[in-house]
Each structure stands twice: as structure tokens, then as C-alpha cells.
Amino acid sequence: MKKQALISAIAASAMIAVASFAIAQSASDVQTLRGADVDEPIGVEDVFHQDKQRFTRNYRQQPPLIPHTIEQYQIDLKANRCLSCHDWTTAGERNAPTLSMTHYMDRDGNQLDRVAGTRWFCNQCHVPQADAPALVDNTFKSSGN
Questions:
Q1: Domains of the chain, CATH where assigned
Q2: CA atoms within 13 A on the CB side of 87
Q3: Mind telling me how this protein is modified after translation (predicted)?
Q4: Which of 4, 81, 103, 142 could form a disulfide bond with 58, CB atoms 3.0-4.6 angstroms apart?
């Protein structure tokens, strides 16, 4: 008898939960956070542009910021577009900064003739620079000040 009452209570709870969910979904005053349907494209303003001048580094050993767009750059397991200009074999003719020699060292400190796998994904450390306002107020001061 107790087992049947427990099963009935669980079934009733499940039905109430499903009904509540259905009512919440059908409520007309519920709006999406983006203000549009999921399949509706939303235009985003392009507010911040790349600066042509390089930003100074804010702390010792900060990875340099990228002074150009990398929007269409392919960086995956098969290709790395950054290397077409910044690899030591092409940087001189492209008038681009050469990668640090640390990018050509493996985990054990052995010198390689190609970029190490641990340094292959450039945008894990380097990001495009933008003169954008801080997202959160802070009191950070550059070590150069």
C-alpha cells in the first residue's frame, strides 16, 4: 500500500512539474534577453577599431598585443595564418616582427626548426589590441608608470 502511494505521489509531482513548465513557456510576457527570436539575426555595432600604433606593455613578460585584425585568420591543428608573416623564415621579407625564440623550443628546452606545438595557437596568449573602456572599474597601474 505504501509503495503504491509513493508511486502515485511521484507521478503527481512529475505531472505538476511538466504542467508548470508548459504554463511558463506559454506565458505571453516572457521575453528573450536578446530581444529577438533565436533565428532572427541581430546586427552588432562595430564600435572599437584596431589602433595602428602598438600599445606599450603593461607588465613584465606581457605577451605583445596584435596591432591588426585577425578576424578571418585560420588557426587550427592544420594551419596557422600568423606564421605566414611572423615565422622566422618569412618575417624579414614581410617586414613583420619575428616570433621569440622561445616559440621554437619544446617542453624540455630543445631548439626546434619549427614552432613548438605548445606555442601553435597564438591567440591563447596574444589578442588584438583595442582602445576600449574597461568592462569593470579597477585601480590597475602599468608597471611603466
A1: 66-131 (1.10.1130.10)
A2: 14
A3: Binds 2 heme C groups per subunit.
A4: 142
Place of cell 504542467: 19
Residue 68 assigned to a binding site:
yes
Question: Is residue 65 within 8 Å of residue 54, measured between CB atoms?
Answer: yes
Q: What is the pLDDT of residues 63-112, one digit of tens each?
A: 988 888 888 899 999 999 999 999 999 999 999 999 999 999 999 999 99
- Annotated binding residue at 82? yes
Distance separating alpha carbons of residues 39 and 25, to the nearest angstrom: 18
Q: How far is CA 111 from the centre of its chain?
A: 30
Report helix, strand or coil for 20. Answer: helix
Question: SS3 sequence, 95-107?
Answer: CCCCCCHHHHECC
**Which pLDDT band holds residue 119 (cuts at 50, 70, 90)?**
very high
Q: Is 126 annotated as a binding residue?
A: yes
Q: What is the pLDDT of residues 3-52, one digit of tens each?
A: 888 788 788 887 887 777 767 666 556 677 777 777 888 776 665 566 66
Question: Is 49 annotated as belonging to a binding site?
Answer: no
pLDDT of residue 19: 74
